[in-house]
Design a protein that fits this description.
The complex is a heterodimer of chains A (319) and B (348).
Chain A lengths: L1 H22 L15 H9 L6 E5 L3 H6 L4 H8 L23 E5 L6 H13 L6 E6 L6 H12 L4 E7 L2 E2 L2 E2 H4 L5 H7 L4 E4 L4 H18 L4 E6 L20 H9 L2 H8 L2 H24 L23
Parallel strand pairs in A: 1-2, 1-3, 3-4, 4-8, 7-8
Antiparallel strand pairs in A: 5-6
Helix pairs in contact in A: 1-2, 1-11, 1-12, 2-9, 4-12, 5-6
Chain B lengths: L1 E5 H15 L3 E5 L15 H5 L4 E2 L5 H13 L3 E6 L9 H8 L2 H4 L9 E6 L14 H5 L5 E3 L4 H13 L4 E6 L6 E5 L11 E4 L4 E5 L3 H14 L4 E5 L2 E3 L3 H11 L1 E9 L4 H12 L7 E7 L8 H7 L3 H12 L14 H5 L5
Parallel strand pairs in B: 2-3, 2-4, 4-5, 5-7, 6-7, 10-11, 10-13, 13-14
Antiparallel strand pairs in B: 1-8, 6-12, 9-11
Bound molecules: thiamine diphosphate and magnesium ion (MG).
Magnesium ion binds next to β5 of chain A.
């Protein structure tokens, strides 16, 4: 298990470092929000899920997409705006999707996918499937009314959903305590009678263990929802590849404990050098191939502007 | 005194001057206190007027719009700023069901003097959910004023007018206009609602550009001049109420009307303008009209499709040329990408 978690963390970190490196060349011509520093949440959660489980995420979605098994080549091609991207280049970094892998889409409008996860969970219950749905969102999203409306309905119907709040303390440049009277998101979930936990230290093993237990229970006892507030930290600027500790809204000293607690380094130290190097080697090859794939793919054909606005004429049969 | 300011500076100046003049003016919105200052339009305001009159909000567009409405009912004049118009969609209930109707449904007993500033438009692959221009949705609603100035002069005068007006005003700014420069008087002045501006005189065709499309229409007008076509360019400035008289006067002179919107055409501002022109010119069959706007699809993120999605000076000039020649001839000027679009770079 350790090596799987390590691979997932390493892969996401390295993919995003490559994105950051390439960004200055303007090959990626759209807003891109990196998860560097926060990978442990997506990895801990998604590794605890089955491949048939489903996640909904946010514009800061690379980690969630990759951790859940989204196709790396199609993601990089999407960032490049190529026709081979997961959304044919029409979405970009903020609109990743891989239905086959159970990544149901990320949105640029904060909070908008939370109720979708609830609706998906409702459909799973209706169809008597044992799929568990995860909704990822940030600490800013809980300020939107739709978050509370979604929690209320999910709790009311005891739906098979796990809410995961990735609390990195900031919404763009505004600290949580400049936006909310207290840092107690976990408490709000409890008022809806949703069993909720707050994980303070980005501990990937603990997140994995807790989510696994929660998913098992939801499946065996039909006892959703569950809620996790995962404290974490964004290392890069809100949007884009740069560092921003010189911009005055947060200090590097605040970040230092998070750097020291880097989960990638932690797992690295727990694995033998051979395993580590094998994984690194394999991942580097995969990443190089993905960027190569994006580079060599074509931009969408002009006719693509008009495709996918509507579906094809429906076959009116019950599915 | 007349100086050259950018559109963004003109907005900031109008805000500062009105806040100084009237202590009931407040500014709220996501990021209004941010060091990036919403493209500079709110930079330094909090330092100048304090955190009670200028404040960042939680991510609660619906609720905070209601808060602004309540504050306006109590006599404040809130300016609620949205960095993207797409986020105003979360506040539709408060804007459409309450702000627009409060005065009427309460029999004139209350007013809701709020200004909702929102930024629209393309730039750096903003894609389907970060670039929409939804002014037409608001034009549809009685009780809302909708302004979309395109010059620094009008930005300042319209914003002051909007703040002083006792009604809810949707104040719409295209991101590609923020860097445009122009003459702006330093004193306070208002630009009245419902008065269009003729930006260039011409005799062969009338080009009406909405918001940023006025800039592209003016470029198209210069291209057309090179092939002997004289285009008149009109900026409606205010979309609701709409100054149809100025447009009609021009159309009756040129006999041709091309409306170019920074939005979709179906049920859009261009539909409204053409419909009103048609209503007023019935029995004048020689008048020709056409409109341009976004392609009828969500905005794609990838650049090559995005370039096809938006009208630009070349496509406008080429369409106008064909209209002037009754579709018997075609011509397209050499494509030059607009400098403000090339210069605007992410990550944002
Ligand atoms: C409804 C809505 N309002 C405002 C924005 C602008 N915006 C984009 S990201 C963001 C901050 C979100 O913070 P959080 O939910 O904590 O997520 P994080 O970026 O920290 O991952 C804001 C305000 C938006 N995209 N959608
Ligand atoms: Mg956050």
């Amino acid at each position: 298990m350790l090596d799987k978690l390590y691979r997932a963390l390493y892969r996401i970190r390295r993919v995003e470092e490559e994105i950051a490196r390439i960004y200055s060349t303007d090959k990626i011509k759209s807003p891109t929000h990196l998860s560097i520093g926060q990978e442990a949440v997506a990895v801990g959660v998604c590794e605890a899920l089955r491949s048939t489980d489903v996640v909904f995420g946010t514009y800061r979605g690379h980690a969630c997409y990759l951790a859940k098994g989204g196709d790396l080549r199609k993601m990089i091609a999407e960032l490049y705006g190529k026709g081979t991207g997961c959304a044919k280049g029409k979405g970009g970094s903020m609109h990743l999707i891989d239905v086959r892998a159970g990544v149901m889409g990320t949105s640029a409008v904060v909070g908008t996918t939370i109720p979708h996860a609830v609706g998906y969970a409702y459909a799973m219950r209706l169809r008597r499937q044992d799929t568990v749905v995860v909704s990822f969102f940030g600490d800013g999203a809980i300020e939107e009314g739709v978050f509370h409306e979604s929690m209320n309905f999910a709790a009311l119907r005891r739906l098979p959903i796990i809410f995961v709040c990735e609390n990195n303390s900031y919404a763009i440049h505004a600290h949580q305590l400049a936006r909310q009277p207290a840092s107690n998101i976990v408490e709000r979930a409890r008022t809806y009678l949703i069993p909720a936990e707050r994980i303070e230290d980005n501990d990937v093993l603990r997140i994995y263990g807790l989510v696994k237990a929660a998913a098992d229970e939801i499946r065996s006892k039909q006892s959703g929802p569950r809620f996790f507030e995962c404290m974490t930290y964004r290392w890069k600027e809100h949007v884009g590849p740069g560092d921003d500790f010189d911009r005055g809204y947060r200090s590097i000293s605040e970040a230092q404990p998070w750097f020291a607690n880097d989960q990638l380094k932690r797992l690295e130290s727990l694995l033998g050098p051979q395993v580590r190097e094998r994984i690194m080697g394999e991942v580097e090859v995969e990443i190089a191939q993905a960027f190569q794939f994006a580079e060599s793919s074509s931009f969408p054909a002009e006719e693509e502007l008009y495709t996918d606005v509507f579906g094809e004429a429906a076959q009116w049969t019950a599915s | 005194m007349d100086r050259i300011l950018t559109y963004a500076e003109a907005i900031r100046e109008a805000t500062v001057q009105e806040m100084t003049r009237d202590p009931s003016v407040i500014v709220l919105g996501l990021g209004v206190d941010d060091f990036k200052g919403l493209y500079g339009t709110t930079r330094g305001l909090q330092d100048e007027f304090g955190p009670e009159r200028v404040f960042d909000t939680p991510l609660s567009e619906d609720g905070m719009t209601g808060v602004a409405i309540g504050a306006a009912m109590a006599g404040l004049r809130p300016i609620h700023v949205h960095i993207r118009m797409d986020f105003v969609l979360l506040a539709m209930n408060q804007i459409v069901n309450m702000a627009a109707k409060a005065r009427y449904m309460y029999g004139g007993a209350v007013s809701v003097p709020i200004v909702v500033r929102s930024i629209i438009g393309r730039s750096w692959g903003q894609g389907p959910q970060h670039s929409q221009a939804l002014h037409a949705l608001f034009m549809h609603i009685p009780g809302l004023r909708v302004v979309a100035p395109s010059t620094p002069y009008d930005a300042k005068g319209c914003l002051i007018m909007s703040i002083r007006d006792d009604n809810p005003v949707m104040f719409i700014e295209h991101r590609m206009l923020h860097s445009q420069r122009g003459h702006v008087p330093s004193d306070l002045y208002t630009v009245p609602f419902g008065k269009a501006r003729v930006l260039a005189k011409g005799s062969d065709i009338t080009l009406v550009g909405i918001s940023y499309m006025t800039v592209e229409c003016l470029r198209a007008q210069r291209y057309l001049g090179e092939v002997g076509i004289s285009a008149e360019v009109i900026d409606p400035v205010c979309l609701s109420p709409l100054d149809i008289e100025t447009i009609l006067t021009s159309v009756k002179k040129t006999g041709r009307l091309l409306v170019v919107d920074s939005g979709w055409t179906v049920c859009g501002a261009s539909s409204e303008i053409l419909a009103q022109v048609a209503e007023h010119t019935q029995g004048t069959p020689q008048i020709r009209w056409q409109r341009m706007g976004f392609a009828p699809v969500p905005c794609p993120t990838t650049k090559n499709l995005e370039n096809l999605f938006y009208p630009n000076a070349q496509t406008v000039a080429s369409t106008a040329f064909a209209m002037v020649h009754d579709n018997q001839r075609s011509w397209t000027p050499v494509h030059k990408e607009a400098p403000e679009i090339v210069e605007f770079k992410g990550p944002f």
